[in-house]
Amino acid sequence: MRQSELFSKTLRNAPKDEAAVNAQLLIRAGFVDKLMAGVYSYLPLGLRVLKNIENIVREEMQKIGGEEILMPALPPKENWETTDRWKTYDTLFRFMSHYSQNEYALGPTHEEIVSPLAKRSILSYQDLPKCVFQIQTKFRDEKRAKSGLLRGREFLMKDLYSFHADEADLDRYYETVREAYVRIYDRLGIGEKTYFTFASGGTFAKYSHEFQTLTESGEDTIYICNNCRVAINKEIIEEQSTCPNCGSSDLKESVGAEVGNIFKLKTKYSSPFELLYKDKDGTEREVIMGCYGIGISRLMGVLAEVFHDEKGLTWPKAVAPFQVHLLSLGEASGDEIYENLQAAGIRVLYDDRAVGAGEKFADADLIGIPWRMVVSPKLGSQVELKRRGEEEVHVLSLEDARNMIAE
Prior knowledge:
Radius of gyration: 24 Å
Strand content: 25-35%
């Protein structure tokens, strides 16, 4: 992509109404645009990052048997009344049609949709287990949208739902999902900073579990067990002062941002919708359920919080919008090199703008693509290659540079 044709532009200063680092950098670098509190447009660079995160999550969900579907974002009031959540779900957007007396919600979660939907497919024990997932926009009427992409009123989320004949099978799959989440965070580059965290189970079970990534901008206080490397959220610690996993009291207080959660729903949502199956003896039994969420757009905000320095963003290779940022300086043209890189299958953002070298370098640092390649008259047939966040500059042939980028 030629930067001269890019829909978005960088900004010199951070927006005054954004306190969160992720929002400041993503807006300045032209990845997102703020429409109102908690609601953002994803511009070409930002959408590329979002899709890269989404694809990693999708691949790992498919590896564990998840079938992708897409459910409505506009559920009727009746479904929410069935579970008694129409009036009790505190962030539910509710409204009435202008043309009828029908009332609707904007979906913040999809248990009320997937449970009756599953009744069409699950009739017998032979139909179990099943698991479906979607990646879809969700809506929550947050009292105070804050922290940029970390707490929004409109956001992109992956939710997986599993259906089982018994709790033993749910327990088995629950562990399978946990392992898949670990792989996702490793692929995103935050595995070492992300902790499997014990949280309140509410009405579902003694515990649910979150995945918390350490970042100073996080909203959650967690306690890391120095003995077994799990974490415990503040709500659990207030009830007990030891690790639920190993019993150790050697805990370190930290701050994290939630990047995923998993729940054993059991029959909480199958029961109201009479989601039943017949066992081998022909007896009808309630389907056991689990649900597993990852905020895709929230992850983008967390990655921006984790991967940045004083100059701008420093995207990990797996999610970066491009592999290399090509800068042409002076009278040098980078057109031929741009075409060469594209022909080699390398994703490249080509800064062909008629602006000074200082502005190009500053924008390259702000946007944060993993490699910066420079062509200029003084380099002749060679190019200058530098990895974002490192000081070392390599002057080498295009072929060698291409090989270094592809490693």
